Amino acid sequence: MITEQDVRKAIAKARDNFDADALPIDADFGDAGLDSLDQASVLLELQEATGIEFPEDASNLNSIEAVLHYAQSRQS
Fold first, then answer.
1. CA 15 – CA 76 distance, rounded (Å)
2. DSSP string for residues in 14-76
3. pTM of this prediction?
4. Considering only CA atoms, which of 60, 66, 57 is closest in space to residue 7?
5. Own/partner pairs, 19-27, CB within 8 angstroms, 24+ separation
6. CA 10, CA 2: separation in Å to the nearest integer?
């Protein structure tokens, strides 16, 4: 199961010197300064850690909240 903290850790790993703990759960990654490569790195990190397959076009998974909802829907 992916937790909010798992997503925050993946963000911090993808982006050095980024305070992932300060990122609101519903904040858009792009608005927070994360680009599409950062987003892809986050999803790849989570996929490798959990085995949950994320779609190739994951542009709609653009917040911690969206990633958590998607992951929960795949684990049910």
1. 30
2. HSTT--GGGS-TT--TTTTT--HHHHHHHHHHHHHHH-PPPPS--TT--SHHHHHHHHHHHH-
3. 0.91
4. 66
5. 23/64, 25/63, 25/64, 25/65, 25/68, 26/63, 26/64, 26/65, 27/63, 27/64
6. 11
Which residue in this structure is represented by tokens 């990633």? 67
Structurally, the chain folds into a number of domains equal to: 1
Which CATH number goes with the domain that contains 16? 1.10.1200.10
Query: What residue has token string 């300060």?
Result: 22
pLDDT digits (tens, 9 = 90+) for 36-46: 999 999 999 99
